[in-house]
């Protein structure tokens, strides 16, 4: 009996020491970006921006969240998608990007060195199929090691990922801006450092266009963090518009887009506690939403995708300053074959 107690105490002590050691290491190595960081534009172009352009937006789910996948943090089982499935999803993503024929592309959840995507540098992979585009990358997720969600489970491991913007036209200035809000310690050491990346394209003697690619908080019960982020985005965007610039805000808002809600698309599964609309008081006077309300842009990851069973909603879209006109907006219904998001394509005109 005494031996059993000693063994049990030794095991408990070992687990405690291991946990304390991991938390200490995660705290020391925690990614802490500055509020504003200049970004280097790779392969920058010299082409001048015309009055009519197309913008493509897609949260690619790091190439591993296609139709056959669920995700442990959303109530599913999968921690790391099998490599053969990942390769298939990634190939489908690349083919879709090549077919987009867009002038500017926004991406979210792009890995550059992560266990979950087999340490592929997806930025380089996408850049290789877009040789005539400049690109900027802003990190929003950098953790050296994420432990298993439970005993005897696989670890999530290392993650380094972020947001990307590609452009056929010269990006004169690009920055990473940290979004406010976040989780308390120690949860903060394991989760994303939310940000938006901003690129400015000058138009000679005309006003500039300011492009904002954002990925707002997801696991935010009550939407308190998102409210802070939305106010930050609003203040920044309105300041740029007041200078006479054109402003495009696009990305994964993680909030129902205006004119949609949790019942827009019928399914057996209902919304989670994290699904919310934009705050009613959050408005930008004269600004216009470019949203396809007929096609879901996101699906739940509680189970592999089956149409009519998984919860679906619209949380991806664009918000445009009053001096920009919308020619068309369409979500490409891929049936979530390659990602848990469907891509969106916007055609706009600078008035």
Automatic annotation (TrEMBL):
Family annotation (InterPro entries): Endo/exonu/phosph_ase_sf (IPR036691), Endo/exonuclease/phosphatase (IPR005135), GPI-anchor_lipid_remodeler (IPR051916)
One GO biological process term: GPI anchor biosynthetic process
GO cellular component: membrane
Domain Endonuclease/exonuclease/phosphatase: 58-341
One Gene Ontology molecular-function label: exonuclease activity
Transmembrane segments: 7-28
UniProt keyword list: Endonuclease, Exonuclease, Hydrolase, Membrane, Nuclease, Transmembrane, Transmembrane helix
Pfam families: Exo_endo_phos
Name listed for the protein in its UniProt record: Endonuclease/exonuclease/phosphatase family protein
